[in-house]
Amino acid sequence: MTASKADLRRLVRETEKCLSPHALRESDRVLAERFLSAEAYRRADTLLLYVGAGREPDTRPLIAAALAAGKTVALPKITGPGVMEARRIGSLTELVPDKFGIPAPDGGETLPPEAFDLILVPGAAFTPDGQRLGRGGGYYDRYLPRTRGVKLALVRHQFIFPALPTQAHDIPVDILITDA
């Protein structure tokens, strides 16, 4: 792989801009349906999810469904430079925009990384075997080594690459759910 991570992130952003609102909605619908029917989700009691921002998959329906199903749901909260915690929520109404403008818990109990049965991992791109290109902040790179749960990612088919540049600290996801 000769392209740098920065080059690939630019390529992903440019490709995302080309996706129509209809294509995004349809992709979101398929991803949500597949996530909610996945065995890893059905078996999980405690989940770390995230709120999709920008043109990332819309995860709010997944969060709402998990809460309605009585599962324990936590979302990431940035608490300092390079530091992410997982805060338990009871409703989407508890979220306020963080410093990046992404809805995040304003309060809530902090759950330890090892508490989760399932971790939904965001990313700009993935390989078929689960290698991940993050968005560049490194928050999940620092958080994931402390987890034990199944790592799952939602990815639009345009963002599956045959190979990505990886480093020793990169942790692949266990399961990819795609819209294709």
Please explain how this structure is put together.
This protein has 180 residues and is α/β, with parallel strands linked by helices. The protein has a single domain (5-178), classed as Rossmann fold, CATH 3.40.50. Helices cover 28% and strands 24% of the residues. The protein has five helices and eleven strands; from the N terminus they run αααβαββββββββαββ. It has helices at residues 5-18, 21-37, 39-43, 60-68, 139-143, and strands at residues 46-48, 72-80, 83-89, 95-97, 103-105, 110-111, 118-120, 125-126, 132-133, 150-155, 175-178. The strands form three sheets. The protein has a seven-stranded mixed beta sheet with strand order 6-3-2-1-7-10-11. A two-stranded antiparallel sheet has the order 4-5. The chain has a two-stranded antiparallel sheet with strand order 8-9. Helix 4 links the parallel strand 1 (46-48) and strand 2.
At the first level of CATH, what is the class? Alpha Beta
The main pleated sheet reads as: 7 strands, mixed
Mean pLDDT value: 90
How many domains comprise the coordinates? 1
Shape: globular
Please give the CATH architecture. 3-Layer(aba) Sandwich
Helix and strand run: HHHEHEEEEEEEEHEE
Unreliable stretches (pLDDT < 50, length at least 5) are: none
What radius of gyration results from the CA coordinates?
15 Å
For the record, what is the CATH homologous superfamily label? NagB/RpiA/CoA transferase-like
> Structural class, from secondary structure content?
alpha/beta
Question: Total strand count, please?
Answer: 11
Could you tell me how far the N terminus lies from the C terminus, measured between alpha carbons in angstroms? Answer: 24 Å
Helix residue percentage: 25-40%
User: Reading side by side through the largest sheet, how are the strands ordered?
Assistant: 6-3-2-1-7-10-11
Strand content: 15-25%
Query: How many helix segments?
Result: 5
CATH fold annotation: Rossmann fold
